[in-house]
Each structure stands twice: as structure tokens, then as C-alpha cells.
TrEMBL record:
Top-level taxon of the source organism: Bacteria
Record keywords: DNA-binding, Transcription, Transcription regulation
Protein name per its UniProtKB record: Transcriptional regulator
Coiled coil: none
Organism the protein comes from: Fusobacterium necrophorum subsp. funduliforme
């Protein structure tokens, strides 16, 4: 059975691998994925492609950019499989929202969920930076001939910093992964990149 909002929409079909839109293009309305899988991608400076998100099912695409001062797609969107996408022009959306409140609710919920996700992500990055700053000062203060030996357990150190133990462990793990530190024993680390600790 055809939904009322489909009376205001155009249906477009895309083949696997086909570009749906590119970063920087103007968003002129709401795209609704009806069938298939699409991927959001971003091209790096070195030419590599970084996949940001994969979407499937009845999904609103770039809903947060339909209105506002900068209505431009933030990423490239490509069809991972053959897919069908409905497009409702911006000027028709208000009518659709008035006639079908459930579409308005879905639209608002979608934008809210994305805003909450970004807020949580920003907070995590802020928390990471805050923990990192405290850890850096501690490492540099305890360093002797390039070696830092913690004078307390990780749990006690986390309490000293006022953070959770898992959060502190994640930052330490990140430092090891980035080869800023090398773990050489229980609560013992070799500082490989002192400048990185001074700059962070």
C-alpha cells in the first residue's frame, strides 16, 4: 500500500558502486533509503577512502542538513548494493510533516539521535584530552632516565586523577599504540617520544 508521503516524493534507483551524492553538494530535500545498503565515505588527502557509516533499511539520509544555514552534504554517499531512494523536495516537507506527524517525529528523532551521538563523542574526546594532560604531567614528573615507574596502582592513579580506571587504561593503551610509551613491566613504561608528552 502506498504511503501518503510517497505522493510528494520521487523514487530514484542506483546500481551497486554508483555515487548518490558528493560532499559539498547542496541538500535540496530529504532522501529516504527504501531498499539496499549505502555507505558514507570521506576522501583523505592521500587519496584513501575512509568509510564513515553504513546504512540500510528505511533510513533518513543527511536529515540534519536539510534545513539550516549550510545545507550541504558533509560526506560522499555511495550505493554498496543496488538501492532505491525516495526524494522529497524541501518545499514539500512541511506539507508532509503536517499531514503525517509520524514522519515529523521520525525526522526530529533522527536529528536528535545524531546530535546526542556527536555530543557524546565530543565529550569523550574532551575527557581523553583531560586525562591525557594529567597523565602527561605525571609521566614527566616520575621519569628517570627515560623510564617511568608508577608509585601506585592503576586503580589508585585513576582515583588520584579523578577518573575511572577503564578510561585511564584506554589512554595508556592509546599511548602504547601510538608508540609514545613502551610497557616494559608491571606499572613500568619507557618513554619513547618525550616531545609528544610535552606537546599533548
Amino acid at each position: 500500500m502506498k504511503k501518503n508521503w510517497e505522493n510528494y516524493a520521487k523514487l530514484f534507483s542506483f546500481e551497486k558502486g554508483e555515487a548518490i551524492f558528493f560532499r559539498g553538494e547542496e541538500v535540496k530535500g530529504l532522501h529516504i533509503l527504501s531498499k539496499g545498503i549505502v555507505v558514507a565515505e570521506m576522501l583523505k588527502e592521500n587519496g584513501d577512502v575512509n568509510q564513515i557509516e553504513e546504512m540500510r533499511g528505511e533510513t533518513l539520509l543527511a536529515s540534519a542538513f536539510v534545513f539550516g544555514e549550510n545545507p550541504y552534504y558533509p560526506v560522499d554517499l555511495r550505493a554498496k548494493t543496488d538501492c532505491d531512494i525516495y526524494f522529497i523536495p524541501r518545499e514539500k516537507l512541511i506539507v508532509v510533516f503536517q499531514e503525517e506527524p509520524e514522519i515529523l517525529e521520525k525526522f526530529v528523532n533522527d536529528i536528535s539521535s545524531k546530535a546526542q551521538f556527536l555530543s557524546n563523542r565530543l565529550w569523550s574526546q574532551f575527557q581523553y584530552k583531560s586525562i591525557g594532560s594529567k597523565l602527561n604531567r605525571y609521566l614527566l614528573a616520575k621519569e628517570r632516565e627515560g623510564i617511568c615507574h608508577f608509585d601506585r596502582s592503576l586503580k589508585e592513579l585513576a582515583e588520584f586523577f579523578g577518573v575511572s580506571r577503564p578510561s585511564l587504561s584506554r589512554v595508556l593503551g592509546q599511548y602504547v599504540e601510538e608508540e609514545i610509551l613502551e610497557r616494559i613491566g608491571r606499572n613500568r613504561y619507557k618513554i619513547l617520544k618525550r616531545q609528544s608528552l610535552e606537546e599533548k
